[in-house]
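Protein Record: Sequence and Backbone Structure Tokens
======================================================
Tokens: labelled as protein backbone structure tokens, with as many entries as the chain has residues.
Task: work out the structure tokens from the sequence, keeping to the layout shown below.
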Amino acid sequence: VAIFILGIAFYVLLPAEKAPPLLLESNKQRLSNQGYLMVVLFAIYVAGEVLASMWMSTLIVDKQGLLPEEAALYGIWFFALIGLSRFFCFLFVKPHWETTVLKASLLAGIIFGILGQQGYTWALPLIGLLGPFFPLCMARISRDFPADWKAMTVYVSVGIQTMLAIMHQSVGTIADAMGIENAFLLSPILLGATFILFHQNNRVSRKQA
């Protein structure tokens, strides 16, 4: 909800900036090709990240027999890694490293998500190494859609909220029917889908460059 409200606030409050006619025309074409791909990419990514953070403790309690307060420590480390990885990314990542860092963060989330789902509890907090993906990818919106970035922010916010609603319902249904360990596998699957879409987005960007 907070992401959605923030997106609306950016769209309404920030002043409109006119783009040159040629740039605006080019951006409309790109929005039809890349724009909706980015919306889907963000929606799927956030669903994978939120699923991992919200259901991690449940997985640990059910499958490892730890107390809820012990399982909560893994969640604390998860969010600490997300925050620290984003902070160090802000300090040290150069523009020419962005694509490598984005791919590496997704791969870390996928690998440690699968390991955690398989019973390696130590790997669950390390899913937080995917932290740099969201801010770095959001920064690309202003570069790839300079005339429509405010509208894109709203589209992304709506897409995220819609996907989160679908994700929560799906995880609950799968957990009831097949167990939490199988439901948790949705997280690395969603992050894997994000990786594929990100790779496709890069291909489109290179063709349009």
Observations:
- Residues 49 and 70 are 21 Å apart (CA to CA).
- Confidence is low (pLDDT under 50) at residues 9-17, 19-30.
- The first helix runs from residue 2 to 13.
